[in-house]
Amino acid sequence: TSVHPDLHQQYVQACQSLGRPENPFIAHLLQEVDNNYKTEGTKGITLKIAGNNRLVPVQRVTDEDVEVVASVLPNAGFVTGLDLRYNVLTDAGAKHVAAFLQENSTLQYLNLMFNDIGTSGAELIAEALHRNETLRHLRMTGNKIGNKGGMFFASMLQINSTLEKLDLGDCDLGTKCLIAIATALAQNRSVKAINLNRPLLYSLEEETTAHIARALKNNSSLVELHLCKHDMKTFGVKRLCEALYENSSLRYLDLSCNNIICDGAKCLAQLLKWNKTLEILDLNANRIEDDGAIYLSEVLALYNRTLKALSVVSNNISGKGLVALSDAMKINVTLSYIYIWGNKFEAACTVSAFSRLIRSGRLAPSCTDVEPYKVDGHIHLAELSHGLKRHYYWTPSYGEEMSREANASLAIAAVSEH
């Protein structure tokens, strides 16, 4: 439509007709959208009603607020994204969101992370996605939907064929639902990125990892997989590596915060010798130590030319392993992002190796998490706030958020460039 609906005016009217109080934060945002539309016009915008915006006074969005917003949005076809993270939505709010998803035909991005939605809210949203054919990116992170809530998403993945990114990190998923999701992923052809971080697993047998590995053998659409805090050990890493010899689509593998030691790093190094698709490997907060770092650096120096980013933050690596990685970077020019903070920098050789990489221009300051500085003629390394998950929980309130350096792609919506 050429005539732009006045969102703020409609919001005020909807509040009156539903007998709900106005939320000043929502009113302020809708006014801004109206003003921007008048000056710039718009194709697709994301309404950022996030409860963690530090630049304006925020009144957190409640279930009643969502009811009003959901009644206004059908008239605003140019709204393609809705960001409701860090609010106080419960299952009652999820009901309004689900009803909206069933009828809406323009929303592509929905962020509900860190609200209070539980199992029944998850059921409503998952069932709405049985019929919805426009939503491409859904973040449920941090809502305690539990094993049962996760099961509803698993069955949704067997039916829905448009969702591309699904974030179920920190949702208290259990063993059964992880296995069900893995089974669905073996058949699903549309999901490109999935986050299954921090499930609640009570078994040490790593059967969930084995099921996920089996799914990877058959899946040719998944590009990004997050398995942080899965209590993964060498056995699980071996299963994943075996599967990835046969998989040629996965580009981003997140194995951070597991129990991976140098044997696991050795399996990954063997895989990188042959694998030609993996571009980002996150091993942050494991214990690969010097031996693991040396296995990886040998393969990166001699064989692999596809890996672009490697995080070995907090892996108990000392001078020997870190220098080996910096030597590999001198030979391998494809590897452009490396994150090493939280290891042992006592050795002068480590500090000088990385400051040489940065000074020579081989390693861009924005592509690593350390920065050399000098005190009394000695060089030390300071930490920078860069990393693979830099924009996972938040995005800047102003300025550019699409920088390649913050390449936690689940957080940065590539669905519609906001």
From TrEMBL:
One Pfam family it belongs to: LRR_6
Domain of life: Eukaryota
InterPro entries the UniProt entry points to: Leu-rich_rpt, LRR-containing_regulator, LRR_dom_sf
SMART domains given in the database record: LRR_RI
Keyword Ribonucleoprotein: no
Keyword tags: Repeat
PANTHER family (alphabetical): LEUCINE-RICH REPEAT-CONTAINING PROTEIN 34
Protein known as: LRC34 protein
Source organism of the structure: Centropus bengalensis
